Amino acid sequence: MRQDCAIPVWKWLLAVMLLAVITGARAEVCATDDRGQQLCLEQPASRIAALSPGATELVWAAGAGDQVVAVVDYSDYPPAAREVPSVGSHTRLDMERLLTLKPDLVIAWVTGNPPEQVAMLEELGLPVFSIEPRSFEAVSGTIERLSVLAGTQTAGFAEAGRFRRGIDSLRAEYRNASPVPVFYQVWDEPLMTVNDEHLIGEMIRLCGGANVFGDLARLVPRIGAEAVVAANPEAILAGGMGEENRGWLDRWRAFPGLTATARGNLFFVPPSLVQRPTPRMLEGTRLFCEKLEIARARR
């Protein structure tokens, strides 16, 4: 006598419900941003808006470049980012244009984007994830968190690991380097530098440099030329208004009494390798270290 092998309807329905619960649980992705706020998405983001050049680079580093639908001015790396629609500058967003692009994830800059505009995006229901990495480890961690939100963990975690290993290698290489008093010029008019809490301050320390303005209270303090003269750095490093503009160093040639000037230790470093908290800081840090080695050799 043949038995009926059909699955009871109630068992089939239960299996479907359990599968839906399991699938839904796996689809939801969560990460905590640099404001300490957890963001959960029902599924990985597929339309990402990056509201700073640094955020754009970090999303690409996380392996999610193909998912970026909006950037801001000066988002020029990688080259593919130049083809993505711009929604204004990081200091003034074109809200209407941004909304028409229908992002399902917005990557904001904690201290760089207008707070009122970021708040408006959240009020309109857009998922906002705010970042501001201030250490080498935070750069790697940010890449990993973005890759989780974008569903690109394999690529993102691999890139974060590459950056960590590169920084660790440089740290080991320069661990016992003799100190070099350094002034880093982050801007020209007004004259600005960084303190030890800034990520660039960590770059200087890793290379054996001693930031002559490291103990100032502000993250990016304004100073006067007379303060630089009084600090008498052994090396001056500066970027400029572009990747090849070395004009910021010219003013220091007018101070022959400066140790940095007297020894020819006025060094240019492309600003995008230093002033954006992205994996390219590995290359920028390597350049920093090479410049300080030159300064040591000139003693």
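Above is the first protein from milestone M3; the second protein from the same milestone is given next.
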Amino acid sequence: MKRLLVLAAAAATLFAANAQTFPGSKPITFVVPFAAGGPTDRVARDLAEAMRKSMGGGANFVVENVNGAGGTIGANKVAKAAPDGHTLLLHHIGMASAPSLYRKLQYKPLEDFEYLGMVNEVPMTLIGKPQLEAKNYRELETYIRANAGKLNIAHAGLGSASHLCGLMWQSAINATEAMTTIPFGGTAPAMNALVGGQVDMMCDQTTNTTGQIEAGRVKAYAVTTAKPLTGNKLLKDLPTLQQAGLKGFDLTIWHGLYAPKGTPPAVLAQINAALKKALKDPDFIKKQEGLGAVVVTDNRVEPAAHKAFVTAEINKLKPVIEAGGKFAD
């Protein structure tokens, strides 16, 4: 018993010392559970630079892409990492969808992480291939019903933002059985198939769709936010799905920052302070606006509010996912 108490005291002393010297010379790694070059990767790299500045430039940040299984491999890696503040997870809405999508999830999103704060929210756009006959959203729904069983909708893989958006939209218009879902191994191949006309529809983040819409490579039909994107010159005239008659439809793809459970409170406080300062960095805000993202400024930058939000998102997504019958081991 005395030995256990001595070991516990030594561990507490070590954690206290680490907190006082954090981050020290060891780099802080942002684990991104998706491929390099994707929207979450871009957010992580912008945030890493902003947090490096907010910590006085002395901290060294590294972005590590751990792709696979809808983001669960990377998330599990962080859940099992040493709780010293040097391994963090930058994840999107998949943090909330995974419990309903996977029967054998290796981690518990609400129990195995320390919540550090939300970063941004990204609107989604409903887009179609250039050859699609429907000229606007009203015509699109009519076209889908007239061609039930003949059309398909692409997504970037199980648990991806485009997968969730497609599920929610098809459920909202009662067209889950009317369209064939085509999964791809990432956003780029899914978008390439849409631009090339091999698939008919896709619902994805503005970070991925804006350039394609502007270039005329895809048709844009609607945005998924509760209010029109009046601040976006390209998308400001697109209707929201709520305006199109889908009451209550409101979906944005958010990103949040997480640490392994058990990370010392003093270290968490330092990271949260650096995050909040980074979210006010003009360069970071400008970069996010360029991606069509909105930097979070409300109380969700605080750990407790962040966790409460994710809890609500888990509850919101569960019935949609279960109705779609999209499960994986």
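Note on the second protein: Residues 303-324 form the longest helix (22 residues).
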